[in-house]
Amino acid sequence: PGLIKIRLKFLNDTEEVAVARPEDTVGVLKSKYFPGQESQMKLIYRGQLLQDQARTLRSLRITDNCVIHCHRSRGATAATAALPDPGPAGPPAPGLPLGGGTLMVPTVMVVLALGWYFRINYRQLFTAPATVSLIGVTVLVTFLAFGVYGQ
User: Fold this and answer.
1) Beta-sheet strand order (sheet of 41-45)
2) Are 112 and 67 members of one domain?
3) % of residues, the chain, pLDDT over 90
4) Which chain regions cross the lipid bilayer (predicted)?
């Protein structure tokens, strides 16, 4: 009486049925079905991460036969506890951080520009299929660049 069934769905498409009361909190649900792993488990309902451990299932409008997606993070707490403290950090650097993804599009554009330079100045080295391929790659990269940066 008063119990609801909740389908816990995992990333590998397996499901487990949890039985809970609407008055139970997210923290109680985690501790009941994931003992010792509460801090590693992320519960997602209707696209929202259930972070507040004190919220009840009723307040989240979780009813009978609802699906909650479960994601187990890989030892995030153990990994951070094992890392040494880096000490006080300096002021954050201004601008964008330079990572591989930040420099990928400009690098590809430079390579394409070099390709077109050689195509124009050394026509005898480029066959018709090579020119068509260069045009195709240029169009593809242009669409990708506008798709990424046009948002």
Assistant:
1) 15-20, 4-10, 66-72, 41-45, 48-49
2) no
3) 21
4) 98-118, 125-149
User: Which CATH number covers residue 34?
Assistant: 3.10.20.90
| Angle, CA 42 vertex, CA 40 and CA 43 arms, to 5° | 145
Residue 120's pLDDT band, with cuts at 50, 70 and 90, is: very high
Q: Is residue 14 part of a domain?
A: yes
Give domain status of residue 90, yes or no: no
**125: its two tokens:** 């080295």
18: Cβ contacts below 8 Å, ≥ 6 apart: 5, 6, 7, 8, 29, 32, 33, 68
Residue of higher predicted confidence among 103 and 59: 59
Confidence of residue 80 (pLDDT cuts 50, 70, 90): very low
The whole-number pLDDT of residue 104 equals 76
